[in-house]
Amino acid sequence: MGPLSARLLMERGRPKTDRLGKIRSLDLSGLKLLTEHLDPKLLSRLTKLQELDLSNNQLETLPANLGLSHLRILRCANNQLGDVTALCQFPQLEELSLEGNPFLTVNDNLKVSFLLPKLRKVNGKDASSTSSQVENLNRELTSRVTAHWEKFMASLSPEEGTEKAQEDFVRSAIRDVHYGPESLSEFTQWRVRMISEELLASSGTQMHEADIPEKSLKATAAQEPRARPVASKRLDDIPLSLSPSKRVCASPPAQAEGRLVGSGGSQPAPKLEPLHFLQCHSKNNSPQDLETQLWACAFEPAWNESTPLAGKHTRATSQTVATCGGEAVCVIDCQTGIVLHKYKVPGEEFFSVAWTALTVVTQAGHKRRWSILAAAGLRGQVRLLHVRAGFCCGVIRAHKKAIATLCFSPTHETHLFTASYDKKIILWDIGVPDQDYNFQASQLLTLDTTSTPLRLCPVASCPDAYLLAGCEGGCCCWDVRLDQPQKRRVCEVEFVFSEGSEASGQRVDGLAFVNEDVVASKGSALGTICLWSWSQTWLGRGSRSAVPVVVLARLQWSPTELAYFSLSTCPDEGIVLCGDEEGSVWIYDVRHMLTQQPPLPAVPQAPTQILKWPQPRALNQTVTKTMVNTVVANPTFTYLTALTDSNIVAIWKRH
């Protein structure tokens, strides 16, 4: 398609007319248009145009001077747009479609909301939720930039020139003023620059005057948005009267109990502050829903752009967590409590989520890093979600029965293990999306189990060679090397917990590596978590198919007879975590244990801390009993997220 012509505009415009100035609706979809084909001089003659369809083209941006000041509806779906700031030229815009532009992120959604004050719908959905989020961010950023201005002015020497001082202020504000999740940093830095420049403009040459003319904002939405934080950051600040939304309040937390004592002395308990209690998985967004079961959560890895492998360990801190339960998957920023994305599939019940990062080459040859979230559950399907762009870009029909759990390989970013109630574990290569952003997954291996697999765990020291699984019938190991000819394999070794509380053939519902060698596992027997050595156990295997584990230590845990409380670890911090039936989180710092010399202590080691869950109360309804079935922390143990059987997501922060 070449440049547009007046004849083409009149052919595709409505109403039919021989004058461009009378066209009110124009369909330019599916013409393979490039940005340079949009001639501002020609399009500016459409003085009455109110509706424009540019979908299904190849636009990378919009020209900044199209002159369509009366435009109310704009469709730009399925293009290659990478920037939205040119939309500010359409101040009357009420409806906007940007679906299928894979390089737009949540930052661009927020920019759109800020730039278009009359916007009512985005991608067919109500825009009030995003508008309210932008108002909150804008209010906080304005406050922080103002405080930074006052601090900057106080440190300014009389000798410094006004112009240089102004430039220094803007640079320092962009560098030092932060708020919200890292995933929103593009938007927040963009707004910080704007607020700083507005502040300077309002002060003129008298730099001591710091009055900020607030930008006119849209009125707050009349109702709570679908994905709002549902509790204040500090329990002490919770109001006595709550609006009828998904808010949850909590009583002050009890003092932490227990200390872990081993050779070398005791470990101090970490100080954890409760930040948010969210009810974001409710059916029909109802605050009365205390029954939706939450199953799993996982922190988004803080991908190192210089690291080619998705699973490479870094010390970067992630504060974005994905949670699943009921028919929804939520992506939450732990710092602010904002639900960044919510993905729903009516009739589905999601049981597991896992993250990876893919390097995607665009049509223009540029490399982009995509965070992909895999989610699976009752239907036996894996949905691959492009989180930043906010859409599902692939579905794998993996199993005929429900998928219990899944995990990505730590060394191959496209390799995904799925474990199902059909007693099979399948290794998939999800590939990378094509130019239409579709995945073509291929099956690499099928691993047969004798009981339902509950937890998957690639062996930390050799993840390409062996996979551990905690199953209803015990802990099993498979050879997953792809250079072997068999594509369908049976369990190679069963690990036996014959000493202590666990025994051969019993359920293992908790499994995770504490470091390159030490495994933490939990079974249905009462009261203990076992720490055992992979290398020492494997060394003593010989030709046996059932091998006793080499136990390094045992940890005291709840004496409950209930099962399926998942444990997790923070390998960099030497932390083991597990919830219980009383709503508590058991925290173990095991670093000193791993250096202990035999013999083992006669009794299981006490936890470093038992974090008591504050009893949440929903409006006009009391949660009488809460079980913490899943708890995870980010790699640096800065944020901790716990899920309950009463539809509550709790977030703590370590100080």
Automatic annotation (TrEMBL):
Signal peptide: none
Subcellular location: Chromosome, Centromere, Kinetochore; Chromosome, Telomere; Cytoplasm, Cytoskeleton, Microtubule organizing center, Centrosome; Nucleus
Record keyword Cytoplasm present: yes
Span of domain Leucine-rich repeat and WD repeat-containing protein 1 WD: 264-653
PANTHER family linked: LEUCINE-RICH REPEAT AND WD REPEAT-CONTAINING PROTEIN 1, OPTICIN
Function: Required for G1/S transition. Recruits and stabilizes the origin recognition complex (ORC) onto chromatin during G1 to establish pre-replication complex (preRC) and to heterochromatic sites in post-replicated cells. Binds a combination of DNA and histone methylation repressive marks on heterochromatin. Binds histone H3 and H4 trimethylation marks H3K9me3, H3K27me3 and H4K20me3 in a cooperative manner with DNA methylation. Required for silencing of major satellite repeats. May be important ORC2, ORC3 and ORC4 stability.
Name listed for the protein in its UniProt record: Leucine-rich repeat and WD repeat-containing protein 1
Source organism of the structure: Phyllostomus discolor
Source lineage: Eukaryota, Metazoa, Chordata, Craniata, Vertebrata
